[in-house]
Amino acid sequence: MYCGEHNGRETGGEREGNWRGTGGEREGDDYDVDEASSGDASGSYTMTGYVDKYPITMYLSFSGSNVTGWYYYDKYKAKMTFTGTYSGSSLDLYCEGGDAFYGTFVNGAYSGHFSGNNGNEMNFNVSQ
């Protein structure tokens, strides 16, 4: 379900156990931001929002049509990295563990569909 590894169990919508991602604590939020609404974007964005009902923080760094970054579930703060492509307003991100985000990025907001490598499908929405 998540981009990274989880060793635990679900209980009533919460997750218990140990997470192994690609980082540690949250990086600072003092990034330069270029508003991107179509075409090639540049700059970086730190955003917060949800995958389904789970709060997340996401960082995107644009270099033309190429995108890199990370996200984590706020409860665990284990960073999971991704790479992706941006064209028009379409932004697709592919995570290390096989999960993916498919959506639109307009004016600093990104929303769409999250596809877990285990077959789970959820909506997501993040913004500055």
CATH class, please?
Answer: Mainly Beta
Beta percentage is over 45%
Q: What is the terminal-to-terminal distance?
A: 24 Å
Q: Order of strands in the sheet with the most strands?
A: 3-4-5-6-7-8-9-10
Helix fraction by DSSP (H/I, runs of at least 4): under 10%
What are the segments in which pLDDT stays under 50 over at least 5 consecutive residues?
1-39
Query: What is the assembly state of the chains in this entry?
Result: single chain
**Which shape, going by the Cα principal axes?**
globular
Largest beta sheet, briefly? 8 strands, antiparallel, barrel
Structural class: mainly beta
Query: Number of domains in the coordinates?
Result: 1
Detailed description of the structure:
The chain has about 130 residues and is mainly beta. The protein is globular and about 30 Å long. The protein contains no helices and ten strands. Strand 4 and strand 5 form a beta hairpin. It has a single domain, classed as Lipocalin. The strands form two sheets. The protein has an eight-stranded antiparallel beta barrel. The chain has a two-stranded antiparallel sheet with strand order 1-2. Helices cover about 0% and strands about 60% of the residues.
